[in-house]
Design a protein that fits this description.
The protein contains 20 helices and 15 strands. The chain has 595 residues and is of the alpha+beta class. The strands form four sheets. Strands 5, 6, 7, 8, 10, 13 and 15 form a seven-stranded antiparallel sheet that branches. A four-stranded antiparallel sheet has the order 9-14-11-12, with no helix packed on it. The protein has helices at residues 2-20, 27-37, 42-46, 55-68, 72-98, 102-113, 118-122, 124-150, 153-167, 175-187, 193-203, 205-225, 239-255, 275-295, 304-320, 322-325, 339-351, 374-402, 405-418, 445-448; strands spanning 262-264, 269-271, 423-424, 456-457, 461-463, 467-469, 475-485, 498-499, 504-513, 518-526, 530-536, 539-545, 548-556, 560-566, 575-590. It folds into two domains: 71-402, no CATH class; 459-590, Jelly Rolls, CATH 2.60.120. 50% of the residues lie in helices and 16% in strands. α1 (2-20) packs antiparallel against α5, α1 (2-20) runs parallel beside α6 and α5 packs parallel to α8.
Amino acid sequence: MLVGGLLILLQLGFRAWALWGSWFYFDDLAFMSRAMNQPFDWAYLTESYGGHLMPAGFALAWVLTKWWVYDWAPWAATLLLLQLVASVGMLRLLVSMFGRRKLVLVLLACYLAWVFTLSAGVWWAAGINQIPLQISLAFGLTAFLAYLRTHRARHLVASLVWVGLGLLFYEKTVLVLGVYGLVALCWFSAGKTPERLRRLWDEYRLAVVAAVVCGGAYLAVYAAYGLNFSPGESADVPWGPIAWNLVAIAMLPAVTGGPVHWQSVTVGAFADPSDILLIVSWAAIGALVFYAWRSRTISKRAWSLVVFTTLGNVALLASARAGIVGPDIAREYRYQTEAAAIIVIAIGLAFLPLRGAREPNAVREDAPDGYEDRRLVGAVAVVVLALSVVSSVRWVDLWQDHNPTHAYLDNVAASLTAADAPVPLVDAGVPQTLLWSFRYPENTYSHLFQPWAAHMAFPRNSLDDLFVFDDSGDLAQVRLDPAREMKRPKDAEGDCAYPLRGGVVRIPLDGPVIGGGWWIALDYDSPVDTHFRLVAGDEAHEVDVPAGEHTAWFQAEGSFDEVMVNSFPEDTGLCVTDLVLGSPEPTRTSAKTSS
């Protein structure tokens, strides 16, 4: 146990280093945006987020946001603490299953070092789903094994409580109930499958009923609150490429220490092992499975746990992710983080006798000799662990170097706090590399930049100055990406396209306008200060503009093909020299504001 504790501390030290250079990314921003702008109520807790139902995760995000918004250290400490609990749980589970053996330490070291859990360990939004699943599996299976051995109901209750806690963070925790069922069927019953099922019902009827009721009740709750995709759509998505990427390209190389090489994406990376590593990993895992079959009496059933959870992962990706972003998403390890625990458990079950099992896993009399020498096993373990460290370090480097969020928000804060007065802003969205626009309005300035609310203004109209942030987070004067322009009359007098006279001035556009999010840039020249009313679709603006040449900015929304100006005094002398409607974009040169 002491050595196991030291291994856990080594993993925590590595994770602390990885977290030290990490920061918030993508869904983290959406979580904080929700917490800053929504009341803490039932609707907030039970909103489906990308198909996830995670009330406990949202509750924790709300607390951390209220106290430590954009302060990474407490959020990182949460991940580190959760990983500590999960790792201790895995050590406890392995000892409960197999006793105090040296091979248990090897299995624990693999769980701690493999890259499966790494992405969830440094990305808060992923970790708050995935790590509680690992905790639920480790502590829950330990309690369930105690129930299988003793028939004491309190252990069964504890195992279901652990599942319930996990389900508060992540719906995929329901798979743990399937793991319980497989362990009970394969190791705590005997005979052919029909006989096993009958004995399971006779001896563990309470567990069967409780698991079915709890699992069914949760699925009903999930269907009501969390299911925002059609599982039937997975039939239209080919499972083959997903399974290939998940198992052959990602899972098997990771078990042998890979993938070593990564395909860099916006932030983080996909598994991209070399052809040599692929062949070696496939051969090594094949040899491991074959040797377990040749040397142990009941090894084959151990792999049922891996097959079950892997099929679950493929089905979930096919129904909720791969149809949108493609099968390459299966090469991202955060979609199979529990594989680290499941594969470790399966290897242990393939080679070691499970304590209390109805059918012990024994060494065959004709087992091949020489393959379980401690020095050989130790050497293989050292190679796998060393490669896993290399793979992990390379992934962390890509994660830390490619995350633009910290620098962007530092620039936003510096730009806003340097201004002498609230900065007039279009309430635009942050770059797609930080948070996708389908999270609107969570991706907008008004929602994400709440800590600097006193330094921002979001006018419906503005004179001359109107700003957005560029992709680096620096303030930039707005320019319009033109969608419509005014039609210049043939009888226009010089630059004066539309003089304000006659009570109502209609400025036709060169095409119809539909929808919202538009802004109008109206250039004018006036000898005196003037009041007028501008109507653009459903938007109406009453403004007082100063004399001189200026640009007035107006929000526009609705369906229209002309802009109307009225309610102005007679003989103002104001001339509209140009009018453009479009989407606000930053100018190429960032702006420094002092007003």
